[in-house]
Design a protein that fits this description.
Radius of gyration: 37 Å
Helix content: over 70%
Largest sheet: none
Order of helices and strands: HH
Oligomer: single chain
Strand content: under 5%
């Protein structure tokens, strides 16, 4: 009976040691993978999210301004065409 308890105690110690080893191994693997992913991202020269958001807002503002200038340009050209037609009718 004492032998069985000693064997079970030894097995439980081995199991606990194994679990702690795997937990440490998991942390180590996570660290290595994280470092490699960071290295790959840096090689790819990707833009950070905050920089992307700023640039996106700038582009949106420029698109709105561009649309406004196109509308005013169309109004001006249509006014010029109307004036040109009136002048031709007068002649």
């Amino acid at each position: 009976m004492v032998n069985k308890n000693k064997i079970l105690s030894d097995l439980s110690k081995i199991a606990l040691d194994t679990m702690s080893t795997f937990s440490g191994l998991k942390k180590e693997i996570d660290t290595i993978v994280s470092l490699r992913v960071d290295k790959m991202i840096n090689k790819m020269k990707l833009v950070r999210r905050d920089e992307f958001d700023v640039l996106k807002k700038m582009v949106q503002k420029l698109l709105i301004e561009n649309q406004k200038t196109k509308k005013t340009a169309k109004k001006k050209t249509s006014k010029k065409k109307k004036l040109a037609k009136k002048k031709k009718k007068k002649r």
